[in-house]
Amino acid sequence: MSSRDKIFTAIRKNKPESVPYTEPDLSLVINYPDLMSQFSTVLTAIGGSCKEVASATEAKQFIDSIDKGAFVIDTTGVYPSDLTHLSPASLAAVDTAIIRGGVAVAENGSIWVTEENMVNRLLPFIAQQLILVIHEKDLVSTMHQAYERISVNETGFGVFIAGPSKTADIEQSLVIGAHGPCGMMAVVIRN
Amino acid sequence: MKDHATLAEEFIKDDARTNWHDETLWFVRQKRDKAAHGLPEWEQLREWASQIKNHTLSNMESYLEEFEKNALDNGVKVHWAADATEHNQIIHDIIKSKGITRIVKSKSMLTEECHLNHYLEEQGVEVVDTDLGERIVQFRHEPPSHIVLPAIHLKKQDVSDTFHEHLHTEKGNNDPTYLTRAARVHLREKFIASQLAITGVNFAIAETGGVVVCTNEGNADMGTHAADVHIACMGFEKLIPKASHLSVFLRLLARSATGQPITTYSSHFHKPRAGQEMHIVIVDNGRSDILGKADFRNALKCIRCAACFNTCPVYRRSGGFSYHTAVAGPIGSILNPNFDPKKYADLPFASSLCGSCSNVCPVKIDIHDQLWKWRQELSKGGHLPLSKKIMMKGMAFVLGRPALYRFGGASARWVLRHMPFLVKFKVNPWYKQREMPEAPKQSFRDWYIQNKKK
Question: What pLDDT is attached to residue B388?
Fold first, then answer.
């Protein structure tokens, strides 16, 4: 008997009688009246930052104006055609990655980013700084509404990103910038 | 084999360090409280989570079948391991078939349970743990002492010494930022050079065949997206029916663990990237037996947040190593006796049965009830040490004879008042690290008889 069969046989024999469950009722879940301010407050508290802009044009002007270092990859605009195949060693030199984000969650400051958005899966994790560009209309109160809006398997990989990479493994002292980005900013376009 | 009490005694020799450990974990518990109280629906969330897990456990085989089918359709290779040895062999076979000698691994308590690192190192494979805390303890040839905070037993000067030895950092520089930066440089090199990455799994979604991995450091993602092969290892109890259920669990997990609203990265892996291979190893290793025990099966609901560790007055003052197992703390004390009742007979006694663990558990596991039930189970199975058996028999004898009990109480009060040196000396185990109480003038019984007529 294969291990698979062995495991299934044991589970079939030992599992209890089926018990039902209730699906989460969203009317019982917190609703933030001001999604933008809640999102921005939480993201700042967890080490990220948040910039509101009026339009896509203003977003571009703002991002152009800030110091991003020498090696920038902007998947919202023009990016290297071989980005998917860039080696980890070359990506390790990226100073700033600019990526489009999807749904953004006010309760925890996280932003959904798909493989399609990032082009190369390693990019948002290995860059020294990460900028995610999102739209205010994509803000939701909680993770419940977020999962209603996305299909987790729409692309092969997707991630909720909430702030910069961090650790507190040395005597519980918070250090921003563990292995990944030392800074993370959300640029929120109001319309 | 040293038991919990003996190992705890070694830990508490250093008063200042014990107090620091206690206070630090209590601080994490307080952060958890603040995060939980920020959501009016917290108790409702726990109830939803508990129900979803109970439902999944009771329909495990159909959800496993659904998960396997969807994962295969996604182009993922699915492996089944009946026990730890098979889990380790499956992983080694994949590594060997690619001719790989160096791998990176993010945090996975399952691989700790299976002693994967030791196994692979014996086969000549270099394993680099990439979670900062795990890398620190790996350098020191220690196991993690906490499932979320692996190096919580260490002070920054310990880390500084370890890094000075292995990463040649400046001697005596204890700055956490400086030390973390040194590890960052070291581990980024390892990520870039690695050909294969192993991760654990926080949640596996039956309806989509995907797995979710949560980290703050981003180490699971750095490893998997840089490497040509990704192996994700999971116990079958990680399953949940639908992707929408992740909302419930992700809202609970980080808040319960560290008080964060969510971990920095909640990564959803469904398909290997173009040119990459992805494997999922699904492990039983005793879990199907636990599923058959009505009193103990709901321990399989655990999502490994460690809230029960941080709140436990015994864990906080005895440290993770005193549990001599990969998963310590209250949840470890009810899981491990399933695997080996003799070896872990001491663990259900490493508790005051205060019930705080059950109160903070995000999936409502009846931890302290199970601790109490395990004590009876172990006693029936003849796994109690002789000293405990004699003590229990003695207690039963005294408690069954009211006159003797009253005489005993009166004698103890008299001794405490008139001959305290008989109890306040070092050999008395009850006097170690404890102040003896002031002896009351009368027993509660006497007080009650005297006052009930008033």
Answer: 80
Angle, CA of B342, B348 and B349, to the nearest 5°: 105
Rounded CA gap, B278 and B270, in Å?
A: 9
DSSP state of A184: E
* Residue B253: per-residue pLDDT: 98
B433 & B386 share domain = no
ipTM score of complex:
0.98
- Residue segments in chain B with a per-residue pLDDT below the cut of 50: none
Q: Are residues B64 and B79 in the same domain?
A: yes
3-state secondary structure of A39: helix
Q: Which of A28, A121, A179, A184 to mutate to test the interface with B (most CBs of B within 10 A)?
A: A179
The string of pLDDT tens digits covering residues A4-30 is 999 999 999 999 999 999 999 999 999
Percentage with pLDDT > 70 across chain B: 100
**Residue B442 lies inside a defined structural domain of this protein:** yes
| Structure-block tokens of residue B394 | 């003695």
Q: What is the pLDDT of residues B216-235, one digit of tens each?
A: 999 999 999 999 999 999 99
Number of domains, chain A: 1
How many DSSP H helices and E strands does chain A contain?
7, 11
Asked if B168 and B284 sit in the same domain, the reply is yes
Average of per-residue pLDDT across A81-110: 97
CB pair distance less than 8 Å for B58 and A22 = no
- CA angle (B202 as vertex; A123, B274 as ends), nearest 5: 40
In what helix (H) or strand (E) does residue A65 lie, and over which residues does it extend? helix A56-65
Residue in A closest to B264 by C-alpha: A162
The strand pairing partners of A185, in sequence order, are: A49, A131
| Shortest Cα distance, chain B CAs vs residue A63, angstroms | 23
Residues B332 and B190 in one domain: no
Q: What is the pTM of this model?
A: 0.94
Q: Chain A to chain B, count of Cβ pairs less than 8 Å apart?
A: 256
